[in-house]
Amino acid sequence: MSVSAGLTSGWMQPANSRFKWWLPGLLALVVLALMTGLPLTALVVSATDVAPQDVLTNPYFRRVIWFSFYQALLSAVFSVGLAIPVAQALSREQKFPFRKLLLNLYSLSLVIPTIVAIFGVVAVYGRTGWLNDITTALGFNAFSIYGLNGILIAHIFFNMPLATRVLLQSLDNIPNEQWRLSTQLRMSGLSQFRFIEWPAMRSQLLGVFMLIFTLCFTSFTIVMTLGGGPRATTIEVAIYQALRFDFDLNVAVSLAIVQLVFCAVLLFASAIFKHEAPLGFSIGNPGTLFRPASGYRWLNALTIGVATLFVLLPLAGLLISAINPTTTKVLLHANTISASINTVIIALTASSLSVVLGVGLLISSRHMRIRLGQHRLGQWIQHAGNIILVMPPVVLGTGLFLLLRNVADVFSIALGLAIVINSLMALPFVLRILDGPLMQAAEQHDRLIQSLGITGWSRWRLLDWPLVRKPLGFAMAISATLAAGDLSAIALFGSERALTLPLLLFQRMGSYRLHEAAVTAALLLLVCLMLFLLLQAATNVAERHQHANA
Amino acid sequence: MLTLENLTVHLGKNRYCFNLQTGTEQVCAILGKSGSGKSTLLNLIAGFLVAESGKLQWQKENLVGLPANQRPITTLFQQNNLFTHLNVAKNIGLGINPDLKLTNQDKDNIDQVLDEVGLAGYATHSATKLSGGEQQRVALARCLLRKQPILLLDEPFSALDEHTRHDMLELTRNVIDKHKLCVVLVTHNKDDARLLDAQQYQLTDGQLHLQS
Asked: How far apart (Å, rounded) are the C-alpha atoms in residues A236 and A54?
């Protein structure tokens, strides 16, 4: 193959005929297009019969839209606002005894299924929970977990730890010299906050605020479980109710389109503010950090203590209530067993699909970014994998429902649909985990790889796989855990014939069989932790195997 | 003979136009400040960058249009010459076969070339455990095994300490003589050029100027 010099100047691709760099990405894009483009088309086509403006003038839906923004705003404000003192206390008390436990707990919130955490939150803050036992004993009115209160508590439970980790990371990045200087200048705790900590956190604040706002805006499980009714429903849940209970397709489609537009705007807004949300499970090495013990140390200790209890209590509540007279009966129940099997099947298939799609996109995008100098275009191909952020699960589910209702019984292919939706939900995580490891090594060695002519399968086997094996295991583990714990997809399509553990838990909670729910929640948590640990361990086995062959 | 005739490329606002003729067993050194275009020159010769116009020939044969891995060229880079997750023998073996399918003969050759660069017995060492100088020796060993007539040296000594640098230059001098290579060295250090007996060129304003 000869390339004429006049036509192709600039960065050149190797004319090695064996390696089709565009193939993995193209295949992934085609699959993505089938999985999202067709449902989207179905939505838009149906939308010609309905009028989204009717939704906007209907007072009920106006209230739903208003509440979606209102609860997201409050959730983001409280999550970030509470994270500031917690991150500050954690940063100033590098040697605090429970520091590590707390940070590990905070990382765990990535793995704990939403519905499981909600059960824990209800166990502590619910009508019959511990908190109400205390407040009623003290003579106060009973506190209701349902409605805005509960939604906020659950959102803060998940997002305050996330915000804390982001802010702590920027605090830990403050150079030691700044702290030494502040000590010599005899700054007060307040001045240190004003001149050192606040500037470090400020750069991340807007980004993490936008992230949490978006997450809460499209929040489904929490609002469906703790909200509901005209006073506390979000667009996402209203779509689900229209589809599942009212069978009102017009309303579902109109709301889905409204939601699509809002999500696109939110994604655009969050692209403007960068943030560095850590996905990993380790945070820096605090041993080398110089942080003078400053401020009121008892206040730091109190802050860390309360923040730990806030996350620890619901988990403890869940585990304690899981041991009850029904435990064995529930575990051996036919529904529990079939739901467990379905959950594991969905988790493993969805995560495999997600990782294959992610690697396919990244391999082609990497070639375009590094070898062809098409940085922007390569990045866009990668962004295609984030489509679920614009088209949240329930919207996608509505599209799939419209697309398939005339072709098949959507409830009998519920597991397949859940796999499709869950793999797309995990894809942004997969892309973020694998992007760094795949790009970094390639950038360093690109000219060497080119001159040695290492391409295609050999390149993957010899150069990429050894470096991405661990991140790949992590990506598999995260996406399997997310899929196992997800309720949004299966809530749309699930039934007695297609049960998963989250759905079973939701049903048992909904019918106030709290003993059975507690056992189901603990089982689901166990399944998620096992999936997470086993999939990560699998890559370590692969590593040992490879060393044995070396 | 390696010939560059009005080999031209534009990168951003800069225009580069290179003219160079060097003998089959000659060392030429390109001197210039950082940012003067030294890497651009090597990228053009090696095929990582394609010229807009002009000629690039080796022994009267056109190289323009050949992909990087099909040119009679091997490069010793300043750093990142080794894949740190592979051992020394595998790093060198990639130069023989990019799929790392090696015959016993290949493995003997690897041991032999390691001996030549003064690293006998290092075959199974992990690349991460090598010093900077040792890493460059392994990379040089791979260059030699690839048996290409043109060797491009992309500031390969500048990251080394003074003592190691002199050892490495001496070794390079010896293997160039022994293997009768055509060498293009890019450096900002006149010492390097002198120690390799190089014909010296200065690179300024996107053009090469022969130094007397």
From this structure: 18
Inter-chain Cβ pairs, chain A and chain B, closer than 8 A: 89
Tell if the CB–CB gap between A451 and B94 is shorter than 8 Å.
Answer: no
Please give the DSSP secondary-structure letter assigned to residue A106: H
Alpha carbon distances (Å) from A365 to A90, A108, B28, B124: 39, 31, 38, 34
Yes or no, beta carbons of A12 and B99 under 8 Å apart: no
Find the helix or strand (DSSP H, E) in which A280 lies.
none
- Search chain B and give the residue with CA nearest A11: B49
Residue A459 has pLDDT above 70, yes or no: yes
**Domain residue ranges of chain B, discontinuous segments joined by +:** 2-210
Chain B residues in contact with A440 (beta carbon < 8 A): none
Q: Alpha helices, DSSP H only, in A93-137?
A: 99-108, 114-125, 130-137
pLDDT mean over A412-424: 92
**CB A3 to CB B65 under 8 A?**
yes
Asked if A260 and A55 count as a contact pair (C-beta separation under 8 A), the reply is no
pLDDT over threshold 50, residue A270 = yes
Which of A448, A459, A468 is the best mutation test for B, with the most CBs of B within 10 A? A448
HEC-encoded secondary structure of B103-115: CHHHHHHHHHHHH
CA dihedral A443, A445, A446, A451 (to 10 degrees): 180
Chain B positions touching A470 (Cβ under 8 A) are none
B44 versus A57: the higher-pLDDT residue is B44
Does A475 score more than 50 pLDDT? yes
CA distance B117 to B188: 25
Q: Evaluate whether B38 touches B186 at the Cβ level (below 8 Å).
A: yes
Average pLDDT for residues A313-324, to the nearest whole number?
87
Q: Which CATH superfamily is domain A58-282+297-322 in?
A: MetI-like (1.10.3720.10)
Between CA B163 and CA B183 the distance in angstroms is 23
Residue B98 has its nearest CB partner, among A445, A453, A550, at A453
CA–CA separation, A463 and B94 (whole Å):
11
The pLDDT tens digits for B161-184 are: 888 899 899 999 999 998 899 999
Query: For residue range B122-131, what is the model confidence (pLDDT) as tens digits?
Result: 999 998 889 9
| Res A282: pLDDT | 44
Rounded to an integer, the average pLDDT of A213-221 is 92
Please tell me the pTM assigned to this model: 0.81
Chain-chain contact of B74 with A451 (C-beta, under 8 angstroms): yes
The rounded mean pLDDT for chain A is 84
Q: Which chain A residues contact residue B98 at CB under 8 A? A: 452-455, 458
- State the pLDDT at residue A550: 43
- Decide: B43 and B68 in contact? Cβ < 8 Å: no
CB interface of B with A, residues 53-82, below 8 Å: 53, 64-65, 67-70, 73-75, 77, 80-81
Architecture of the B2-210 domain: 3-Layer(aba) Sandwich (3.40)
| Closest Cβ–Cβ partner in B51, B68, B87 for A451 | B68
